[in-house]
Structure formats: structure tokens, C-alpha cells
User: Fold Shikimate kinase from Cohnella suwonensis.
Amino acid sequence: MNVVLIGMPTAGKSTVGVILAKVMGYDFVDSDLLIQNQENRLLKDIISQDGINSFISIENQVNASLQVEHSIIATGGSVVYGVEAMAHLKEIGTVIYLKLSYETIQKRLGNAKQRGVVLREDQTLLQLYQERCPLYESYADIIIDAENLGIEELVVKIMNQIP
Ligand SMILES: Nc1ncnc2c1ncn2[C@@H]1O[C@H](COP(=O)(O)OP(=O)(O)OP(=O)(O)O)[C@@H](O)[C@H]1O
Ligand SMILES: O=C(O)C1=C[C@@H](O)[C@@H](O)[C@H](O)C1
Ligand SMILES: [Mg+2]
Assistant:
């Protein structure tokens, strides 16, 4: 079985995921890096060159094809737009949503466009947050409130909730 981390960009999926893998003796997979490997391009270049719909479709295909065991899987924040990806991830793992307030995400994110976030031209970060929260919640097996927790504290909180 795997543990799948979902949540907004900067929620800590990659940072916390790799530590969690070490502490639990799991492997670590970052699906953003698998996308970059497959495409041989940076995420932000895929988004700027091909557009957000193509990126979402590539992300969906990569995550839907993931064949791993005993791994912590850090997904990209936009993975929840991929129906096939989420169906597959739910089948191969326990899905954990790292939930943070809009204010914290905004502070950590800085300039969303420069980081290559899947944000439509006419969409604000607040609208993106409001659009995504229900998706993260609907796919989550476990929701973890990560607000005001340091990286190590969050690792412990996640470990305590993994079945
Ligand atoms: N618990 C935390 N407290 C403070 N800062 C954190 C915490 N977790 C992560 N960060 C910081 O937030 C930034 C983004 O974290 P990270 O790359 O792990 O996010 P992510 O969820 O993987 O985002 P993405 O969806 O873009 O891949 C990093 O600079 C990281 O150090
Ligand atoms: O939440 C997002 O829109 C994204 C998050 C990153 O992990 C990458 O998957 C990509 O930059 C898009
Ligand atoms: Mg990440």
C-alpha cells in the first residue's frame, strides 16, 4: 500500500513526503518529477508552452500510470483535476489531504504564475483555492490540518493518522 499526499501548491507534499518516507522506511515518489522526466521539460515550461489543459492531461496520464508499492507519493497540486489519476491513486493508496488556510498558501506561494501553478488567466489565487478545496476534500481518505505546524510536527501528525 502507498500513502498519497494531495493539497495546494506549497502545502508541503514534497518536503514532508520525503522525510515521511525516510522515517517510515518507505520509498518516495514525486509525481511532478516523473512528469518532468517524461517530458524532459520543467513543469513551468510545459504549462507556458502547451497551456494548462495539456499540462493537466499529461499529469493525469502520468499519475494514472503510476506503478509503485510501499511508497509515499507527493502529487502536484493540480492532480485533482485528473479523474483517472485520482481513481488510480485512491486504489493504490491512502489519500491524505494536507489542508492549509488561504492566507498561509498565499504567503508561501509568492508569485503563482512564476512557479507554474495551474491558474487560468482570469482566475485569482483565492478563486483557485476555493475551486480546489472541495476537490481535495472529496478525494481525501484523511484530512490533516497542517496550519501552524513545522515540517517535523506535520510528519509526526501524519504518521499518527496513517492506518
Ligand atoms: N510545514 C511547513 N512549514 C513551513 N514551511 C513549509 C512547510 N512545509 C513546506 N514548507 C515550505 O513551503 C515551500 C513549498 O513546499 P513543497 O515544495 O513541499 O510544497 P508542495 O506541496 O510539494 O507543492 P507543489 O504542489 O508545488 O509541489 C518550501 O519552501 C517548503 O520549505
Ligand atoms: O498546483 C498546481 O497547479 C501545480 C503544482 C505543482 O506541483 C506542479 O504540478 C505544477 O506546477 C502545477
Ligand atoms: Mg511538490
Q: What stands out?
A: Residues 9, 32, 43, 76-78, 116-118 surround SKM (ligand 2) (CB under 6 Å). Residues 134 and 140 are 10 Å apart (CA to CA). The chain has one domain: 2-154. The beta strands are 2-6, 27-30, 71-74, 93-99, 142-145.
